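Hi both,

Apologies for the delay on this - the queue was longer than expected. I finally got the flavin-adenine dinucleotide-bound model through. Below you'll find the protein sequence and the ligand SMILES exactly as submitted, and right after that the structure tokens for the full complex including the ligand.
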Amino acid sequence: MIADNEIDLAATRALLLTACHELDDGGRASKSSSIAKTFAAEALHRVVDRATQMCGGLGVSTDLPVAKIAREIRPFRIYDGPSQVHRWSLAKRAVRTIAGDHR
Ligand SMILES: Cc1cc2nc3c(=O)[nH]c(=O)nc-3n(C[C@H](O)[C@H](O)[C@H](O)COP(=O)(O)OP(=O)(O)OC[C@H]3O[C@@H](n4cnc5c(N)ncnc54)[C@H](O)[C@@H]3O)c2cc1C
């Protein structure tokens, strides 16, 4: 579980850097920011959920900060566009690209 957390965190950092590089280069980063936002929100949820599981009962108690972090992480998949909306936007762009419209 610790290794899986490391993998999720490393992948999140890599996707964020891709979007940041595009923005630094003056691009809109619409696709890469949607990918990074959706992946990060869901990866952080998985990371906190594994941390909760590894801590057992303590993980859901107020003795550790894990339950508080889990509660604070949950809205990530809703604000700045729910995951479903980013997926809709990514799918629309992908279908347009396949159809030859590169807007
Ligand atoms: C902690 C927190 C902080 C926030 N901060 C800000 C802020 O600073 N500024 C700001 O402007 N807003 C902020 N918001 C609002 C946030 O951006 C909205 O909650 C978010 O855009 C979702 O809109 P909604 O709540 O109206 O949900 P709805 O749009 O009603 O969506 C509800 C659910 O329906 C599903 N859904 C919606 N659209 C689709 C679709 N096209 N396809 C499939 N499923 C879909 C998703 O599962 C979604 O979670 C914040 C929200 C929270 C929880």
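Main takeaway for now: The pocket of flavin-adenine dinucleotide is lined by residues 75, 78-82, 84-85, 88 (CB under 6 Å).

I'll put the files on the shared drive as well.

H.
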